Amino acid sequence: MSQRVYNFGAGPAMLPTEVMEEVQQEMLDYQGHGASIIEISHRAPPFLEILEETESIFRRLTGLGSSHVMFFMHGGAQMQFSAVPLNLMARKEKRSAVYLITGKWGVLAEEEARKFGSTRVALDGKPLGFQKIPEWEEVLDPETSYVHLTSNNTLYGTQWQEYPDTGKVPLVSDSTSDILSRKEDYSRFGLVYAGLQKNLGPSGLALVLVREDLLGLALPQTPKLLDYQLAHEQRSLANTTSVFSIYVTLKMLRWVEKQGGVAVMEQRNREKSKLLYDVLDDSELYKAVADPENRSICNVTFRLDDDEMEKRFLKQSLNEGLYALKGHRDVGGIRASIYNSMPLEGVKALADFMKDFERRET
Predict the structure, then answer these.
(1) Which range marks the domain in which residue 194 is found?
(2) CATH number of the domain that 151 lies in?
(3) Cβ–Cβ under 8 Å, residues 172 and 191
(4) Which are the contacts of 77, defined by CB distance < 8 A and separation ≥ 6?
(5) Contact call for residues 285 and 304 (beta carbons, < 8 A)
(6) C-alpha distance from residue 262 to each of 196, 208, 337 (Å)
(7) CA-to-CA distance for 282 and 255, rounded, in angstroms?
(8) Which residues does the annotation mark as catalytic?
(9) Residue 29 and residue 36 in contact, taking contact as beta carbons nearer than 8 Å
(10) Residue range 147-199, pLDDT digits in tens
């Protein structure tokens, strides 16, 4: 059997070895039922217990209050680009939403929302190459249906350090790439959604947190499986859900709790990212992409001026067991995704390789 690598992929991302081993051990026989978890009905008691515990631990880890409901929906985060406007545009008669765009995912979310109402891009980082999040502060039209942002930009490695105050207008966050990576006050948000494949488990589903007063507002044309009210009423089971994905999510939540909770995850993530940013700031070879004030603790992005040297870096790093460091196809460069599951040892190995590569190449 080949040795496991340090997987710096942006998603699907690495999972803790102990979680993978637990899944492996239970694959053929889930807790004495004589059947695999992937063979058990989504309405059978064993899975309903999984669903209930998953919500219980998430609420305990995050302090999510009773004002918000929680459920899973198909299609990952990108399906929510449609679900959000379908469910929230009709909140106000104007059916108008504001989008704060800090990268590709915000662009795609706004394009999808236009199909269901009017949108206004009130903040756009494109003129800055998405390397910095521009400052934004304005008095919102109270008839605005919602304000949407992406909390962490995986392509460019930027992250909102403080969220804007939107007053009585619900703030919506695509938190796919940094959920559970740092402590958050979820009471500030009307809606938070996150694909599972970074910090929560396998791809294919999204976790959705919605303030209860925002339910029941869906546009008439909203498909059944994108209706938040129905998803809540049916407890994520309006149709056959991905039992396996939620099962792994439960394993991940147990693991986070065992490590000490979200505060410990945040401390570790800040320590890991600082290791890499210190190398970048001391280097004459590597060029950090993100502005220092907006640097992500989840995705560290950088470049080398020489394309051939960058190719050598990626090839040699892979030979050292440092996997999936190539940047997103839209932007190139190098990206180290260091989500909760990435151990400190993996980041130290990358930092040491970076310093060694620079010594050899310059």
Answers:
(1) 18-259
(2) 3.40.640.10
(3) yes
(4) 105, 174, 176, 193, 194, 195, 206
(5) yes
(6) 16, 18, 18
(7) 35
(8) 105, 174, 198
(9) yes
(10) 999 999 999 999 999 999 999 999 999 999 999 999 999 999 999 999 999 99
